[in-house]
Design goal:
With 64 residues, the chain is mostly beta strands. The protein is 6% helix and 38% strand. It contains 1 helix and 5 strands, in the order βαββββ. The chain has a 5-stranded antiparallel β-sheet with strand order 4-3-2-1-5, with no helix packed on it. β3 (43-45) and β4 (51-52) form a beta hairpin. The longest helix is centred in the middle third of the chain and has 4 residues, at 22-25.
C-alpha cells in the first residue's frame, strides 16, 4: 500500500548510515502524519525535519 499525504505512519527503522547519522536513528519509533511528498517521493512528516525515503527506510501506515 502506498503512503499518501494525510496518512499517519510509524517509522520502524530509518537508515542511519551504519550508525553515523544520530538524527536518523532517533526517528525510529516516531509516529507522525505525512504533510508533503516531494518530487522524488520522500515523505515529509509534520513536525520533523528529516524526510522518510520509502525505498530505504522501513515504516508502516497506521491510519489512512
Amino acid at each position: 500500500m502506498k503512503a499518501q499525504v494525510g496518512d499517519t505512519i510509524r517509522i520502524i527503522r530509518m537508515d542511519d548510515n551504519n550508525g553515523k547519522d544520530l538524527a536518523a536513528r532517533k526517528m525510529n519509533g516516531v509516529i507522525a502524519t505525512i504533510n508533503h511528498i516531494d518530487g522524488i517521493g520522500q515523505l515529509h512528516l509534520q513536525g520533523y525535519g528529516l524526510a522518510v525515503n520509502p525505498d530505504i527506510d522501513e515504516f508502516e501506515i497506521i491510519s489512512k
